[in-house]
């Protein structure tokens, strides 16, 4: 079946099955920036924003978010026009293999949208649920701190 969704600010028709998770529906329709990690809601690789709230797309049925605003990492910035958050991840060297990066950027975006001056505890809480197998997380934390600094200096979310 085909259903209409609003993804990254555009109305898009997705082909899906009745029991498709949002992750499967997105990936099957070309949104490969949403990564398929654990399919259990434990790694954060499939994180998207649903009406501005970070959600593991592997844990919800696609049909349940029809009519809601879905944002992938490409809705935050894109090749040639990255957001200041994406630039902060690159500048801090927090993108190693890149598999987990979209989920971390989604979580960072949601945090900074709510609070552009987060404490260390708030940063750790916002990133809880995002796993990275390449780093010791220090560069990722540096990236969030740098993005927060840039948000306070006028970065547009």
UniProtKB/TrEMBL annotation:
Protein name: Ferredoxin
Pfam families: Fer2, Fer2_2
A molecular function (GO) term: metal ion binding
Keywords attached to this entry: 2Fe-2S, Iron, Iron-sulfur, Metal-binding, Oxidoreductase
SUPFAM superfamilies: 2Fe-2S ferredoxin-like, CO dehydrogenase ISP C-domain like
UniProt cross-references to InterPro entries, sorted A to Z: 2Fe-2S-bd (IPR002888), 2Fe-2S-bd_dom_sf (IPR036884), 2Fe-2S_ferredoxin-like_sf (IPR036010), 2Fe-2S_ferredoxin-type (IPR001041), 2Fe2S_fd_BS (IPR006058), Beta-grasp_dom_sf (IPR012675), Diverse_Oxidoreductases (IPR051452)
UniProt domain 2Fe-2S ferredoxin-type: residue ranges: 1-76
Keyword Membrane part of the UniProt annotation: no
